[in-house]
Amino acid sequence: MAEDAYLSDRPKSRSPRPLVALIPFLRPYRRVLVAAMLALLAASGSMLALPIALKGLIDRGMAAGSAETINGYFIAFLGVAVLFGVFAALRFYIVTWLGERVVADLRAAVYQRVIRMDPQFFEVTRTGEVLSRLTTDTTLVQSIAGVGLSIALRSSINLVGSLVLLAITNLKLLLLILVAIPVVIVPLIVLGRRLRKLSRSSQDRIADTSGLAGETLNAIQTVQAFTLEELHGRRYAGAVEDSFDVAVTRTRVRAWLTAVSTMLVFGAITLVLWFGAHQVLAGRMTGGELGQFLLLAVYAGIAAASLSEMWSEVQRAAGAMERLVELLHATPAIVAPAAPTPLPAVQPGQPAGRIEFDHVRFSYPSRPDSAALEDFSLSIEPGETIAFVGPSGAGKTTTFQLLLRFYDPQQGRILIDGVDVAQAEPGAIRQRIGLVPQDTVLFGASARENIRYGRPGASDAEVEAAAQAAAADEFIRRLPEGYETFLGERGARLSGGQRQRIAIARAILKNPPILLLDEATSALDAESERAVQHALEGLMSTRTTIIIAHRLATVLKADRIVVMDQGRIVAMGPHAELVASNPLYARLAALQFTDFIAPAVATDR
């Protein structure tokens, strides 16, 4: 499956239509939008009153030679200027607030959608691409939803108001302007479409650089260990150069757009004013009317130029919004059914978590021709401990992925407490499962908060009790700020064994009916393993547990050991029986537990 299957399965629009997707985000703030419009109308009305006052000043005040009349007009000028300043500032504040609020809601909505996507999405989508859309793209949308929207609305109102007043002042001159409009607009539309394509391409190149940087920084120790700094530096520099080239082309087109729009607009105004001057000489207009027409024409020209400039911003924002809409419309393959089947209630003190794999066949979407599980059937009773063993690629981890419903099998069913997981709410399934992964993931938070991820509502005392049970309390208290110590990104301030104990404490705190342990003690030293193993045995005694492990102590104490190979169960039973009866298990045991099973193997021979 390619990334395009999630993010690019709709045709790319050549219009600002993607910005219509902002309407649901604007709707909750209708009153704020109305207030902004009222302030905008008041500010624009004040500004458009100035040419009318200018006409009166010239035709009545100056023509009459009355100082009192002139003073009155200038006082009116000052009053209008004050009103314009107040309402312009109010409009700017309201619209800017609205833009910030809408984009904050948009970011939250996109993030909420992304974190609910299934693993198939993240198999084909780079994290840097998503982060670029959450940051760079939302910033572009913010520019148009905030100040840009204010400028566009103001310019539109000023343009329409100026044209109406121009028509009242002199209809012939206005008709001349209207004839010139197509000459001005057509080149702007052509250049605007070109700019839209370049804007989207520029955002894609920026996303590429973010993806490369994120991938490298997340594996910085590997990069440095293999001395690949120069190689990754060249790759990143190449991506940045590609981004720069597209940005320069976009800027060149935008510069042409600005130049062409300015020349055409003011060239048209110059032509119209030339005609108007001859109208005054012929006695068909007064000097005040020409002054009013001149100021209104300047308003109209500035508004038109501003709108043409904003059109390029609209094009960029539309491209960014189009990319954000793709994320908002991305649909996970794993969804809850319309009427999910509830799981039976867990009775306190009673074992829960019966699991059944019923003739399951599953292939990963990226490898549809290779079955990770084939005709896999297994029943696990509540409270039973099962250990999965087998070579790499046997399908052990796949069983965990399916139990957590990160994927759905192509054939067969998986039942938990008698309920088909495909018919249940995925969140309800996952709430019943505690996972201790082989690759422990810690968050950039304190030790206490990292453990509390197991149960967000847990008290401090419960968190510390879970840490004690996982043999983590001692080293946590030795940290500079104890449980409040910031662990660094991905737990960088801890050793592998310490991170694993935090993960075990998290599972202990969650206290789920089903426990999945994927090499849960692989990073622990012998002494810590004994302490943690004792804690895990207490945790496992009242719940269903599935273990993927090569550690001898864990495998030996399982109720059953399931030997897997190429997605199938090839043997099942206790350790001693499997060593004697199954060549694959005997070989794996000989490789992993040589000291323990060597006598048994010698006896078999």
Structure description:
This protein is of the alpha/beta class and 605 residues long. It has three domains: 4-329, ABC transporter transmembrane region fold (Up-down Bundle), CATH 1.20.1560; 355-432 and 512-604, P-loop containing nucleotide triphosphate hydrolases (Rossmann fold), CATH 3.40.50; 444-499, no CATH class. 64% of the residues lie in helices and 10% in strands. It has helices at 4-7, 23-26, 30-64, 67-114, 119-124, 127-169, 171-218, 220-225, 229-281, 287-329, 396-403, 426-431, 447-452, 460-469, 473-477, 496-510, 526-540, 552-556, 575-581, 583-592, 594-604, and strands at 355-363, 371-380, 385-389, 411-416, 419-420, 433-436, 514-518, 544-548, 560-565, 568-573. It has a six-stranded mixed β-sheet, sandwiched between helices. A four-stranded antiparallel β-sheet has the order 2-1-4-5, covered by helices on one side. α3 (30-64) runs parallel beside α6 and α7 (171-218) runs antiparallel to α9. It is elongated, with a radius of gyration of 35 Å. The two termini are 50 Å apart. Residues 1-5, 8-14 and 595-605 have low confidence and may be disordered.
